[in-house]
Specification:
The chain folds into 2 domains: 3-360, Radical SAM ThiC family, central domain (TIM Barrel), CATH 3.20.20.540; 365-427, no CATH class. The protein has 19 helices and 10 strands. The chain has helices spanning 3-8, 14-23, 27-36, 76-89, 103-113, 122-132, 142-155, 168-177, 186-198, 203-206, 208-218, 239-257, 275-285, 306-320, 339-360, 365-377, 381-387, 391-401, 419-427; strands at 39-40, 55-56, 62-67, 93-96, 118-120, 159-162, 221-224, 262-266, 291-294, 324-326. The strands form 2 sheets. The protein has an 8-stranded parallel β-barrel, surrounded by 6 helices. Strands 1-2 form a two-stranded antiparallel ribbon.
């Protein structure tokens, strides 16, 4: 049985209790929202060491970190270090996007170490193994794709990104658009190439019921991928993107009928003024299913600083109703992120998520900032470090910037002219 099945029966599961405790809300609230499809708890029954986390309406905005091997960088230990760094920085979930030679070994190691939900994109492994067998991606076997999905589900993966909304009809809309960047989703491009070459419907769409049956068995959450997410501002909110979203809305209904947990992925690159419209449209068409967004990035020209571009867009998206932010690192559009990129990406997304939670009135969000303000008023640096989103960064930065400090309470910005210290001295 899935969390949905049990929630509809009125049962509060151990995972619901665990997730509710993290939010300081009632487990009954979580149960009701899961029953209605507005909250998900990605928790494969085979992921034994999982600390359950809930994503969705009325909850704290969550952050995901991506990593994984590539054909150029296939070092398992590096990816495990990224996992450790991501979780330490505050990631609520991670995704293994490996395309190197050790895909299964990497995933197995990550699942063994990760206490947060783990997601994958099964078509990556399918494509890699097809190419390794001497064939092109366009020769992928449908049965092979489902074998990989079943294997990953059995191993304990908590959520899978599947580009089920990419149909032949959607591709016709794409062709008519004349996009600048066409398809930037890697999984989406694999499927599109296969569909166009074979003139066949997307197997994940055609055999969606089979996919639902597989996920139901181990309570794996479907993350309905946006294969046609805009990869540049010029392509934002076009007919191809919206047509895919319409299909995804229908697939959300079918997943709910099958009592399979489901969330929906979103853009991508969006001009700032289009973000709220996109979020509201998704929430309406997908009947308030949890929304998982990549960024969104609000400009195309910030290579090297795209974690900042994404944080700007992420705050706007989450404030408008997005529930789950996929981090973007400084290495986005450049190369595979290193450990420092992972840390910076997570922290930037955590800042965006927290800022949005304040705007949304999420329980406890404002209180954290009030405590920080009180600590600053008292010039209590240890308390400030304790409350900071990146405590290690604050501790090291203070040490580095204040080597010549004459007054330990102040900082080298103001020294003896510290505004708060001057007022306190007069009040004594």
């Amino acid at each position: 049985m899935t969390q949905v099945t049990r929630a509809k029966k009125g049962e509060i599961t151990a995972e619901m209790k665990q997730a509710a405790d993290k939010e300081s809300i009632s487990a009954e609230f979580i149960r009701k929202q899961i029953a209605e499809g507005k909250v998900v708890i990605p928790a494969n029954v085979n992921h034994r060491n999982l600390n359950a986390v809930a994503f969705g309406k009325g909850l704290k905005t969550k952050v995901n970190a991506n990593f994984g091997t590539s054909e150029d960088y296939d070092q398992l230990e590096n990816e495990l270090e990224k996992l450790k760094a991501a979780v330490a920085a505050g990631a609520d979930a991670v995704m293994d996007l490996s395309t190197g030679d050790k895909i299964e070994e990497t995933r197995e190691a990550i699942l063994k170490k990760a206490e947060v939900p783990v997601g994958t994109v099964p078509i990556y492994q399918t494509a890699v193994e097809t190419v390794k067998s001497g064939r092109g991606i366009i020769e992928m076997e449908v049965e092979k794709l489902f074998e990989v999905i079943e294997k990953q589900v059995e191993e304990g993966v908590d959520f899978i990104t599947v580009h089920c909304g990419l149909t032949l009809e959607t591709l016709r809309h794409l062709a008519a658009e004349g996009r600048v960047t066409d398809i930037v989703s890697r999984g989406g491009s694999f499927l599109a190439a296969w569909m166009l070459h074979n003139n066949q419907e997307n197997p994940l769409y055609e055999y969606y019921d089979r996919l639902l049956e597989i996920c139901y068995k181990k309570d794996v959450t479907l993350s309905l991928g946006d294969a046609l997410r805009p990869g540049s501002l010029a392509d934002a909110t076009d007919r191809a993107q919206i047509h895919e979203l319409l299909v995804l809305g229908e697939l959300v209904d079918r997943a709910r009928e099958a009592e399979v947990q489901v969330m929906v992925e979103g853009p991508g690159h969006l001009p700032y003024d289009q973000i709220e419209t996109n979020i509201r449209l998704q929430k309406e068409l997908c009947k308030e299913a949890p929304f998982y967004v990549l960024g969104p990035l609000v400009t195309d020209i910030a290579a090297g600083y795209d974690h900042i571009t994404a944080a700007i867009g992420g705050t706007a998206a989450a404030a408008a109703g997005a529930d789950f932010l996929c981090y973007v690192t400084p290495a986005e559009h450049i190369g595979l992120p290193d450990i420092e990129d992972v840390k910076e990406g997570v922290i930037a997304s955590k800042i965006a998520a927290h800022a949005a939670d304040i705007a949304k009135g999420v329980k406890g969000a404002k209180e954290k900032d009030r405590k920080m303000a009180a600590a600053r008023k008292k010039l209590d640096w240890e308390r400030q470090i304790e409350l900071a989103l990146a405590p290690d960064k604050l501790r090291e930065s203070r040490k580095e910037h204040n080597r010549v400090l004459k007054d330990e309470d102040a900082c080298t910005m103001c020294g003896s002219f510290c505004a708060m210290k001057l007022v306190d001295d007069q009040n004594e």
